[in-house]
Amino acid sequence: MIIISVLIDTNIFVSYYNKRDVEHERASKIMPEIFDGRFGKPIVSDYIFDEIITVCLARLKDKEHVKKIGSDMLSTDIIFVKVSENVFSEAWKFFLSTDKTFSFTDCTNIALLKIYNIDSIATFDSEFKKVKDVKVVP
């Protein structure tokens, strides 16, 4: 059996939940496709969840709304994975070796894709398209 999966990057969620975000319309179109399983099982890491909550709180400035966002995410079919020591180590190696300007969380995303054989990443960050063997949706 082949299990298809998609790692969802922070910017998809932040754009979706922030109606003033320039990518809100795109995020509003792709989120239903993600949760309908078009790209496979949705996956989020603990680092991504942390970033989503932190960025949404900073941009929306409404803690009650952000608490609801987090609670809603935790009650969906998203598969949550923790950044293990192995993923952390691979992410650090990638961070040190790349000339691209990835955040460390983005480096953990790349490590997760490779270590867990996750099929693709849903992101608005075009830098991911430049990484060998990384498939970006949409």
Please describe what this structure looks like.
The structure is a single chain. The chain has one domain (5-124): Rossmann fold (3-Layer(aba) Sandwich), CATH 3.40.50. The protein contains six helices and five strands. The protein is 52% helix and 12% strand. The protein has 138 residues and is an alpha/beta fold. The model has no long low-confidence stretch (mean pLDDT 94). The protein has helices at 10-17, 24-35, 46-60, 63-74, 85-97, 104-115; strands at residues 5-8, 41-45, 79-81, 120-122, 136-137. Helix 1 crosses helix 2 (24-35) and helix 1 packs parallel to helix 3 (46-60). Strands 3-2-1-4-5 form a five-stranded parallel sheet.
SS-based class: alpha/beta
Can you tell me the number of structural domains? 1
- 3D shape: globular
**Strand content bin:** 5-15%
Helix content range: 40-55%
Amino-to-carboxy terminus distance: 24 Å
Q: How are the SSEs placed, and which strands pair?
A:
Layout lengths: L4 E4 L1 H8 L6 H12 L5 E5 H15 L2 H12 L4 E3 L3 H13 L6 H12 L4 E3 L13 E2 L1
Parallel strand pairs: 1-2, 1-4, 2-3, 4-5
Helix pairs in contact: 1-2, 1-3, 3-4, 5-6
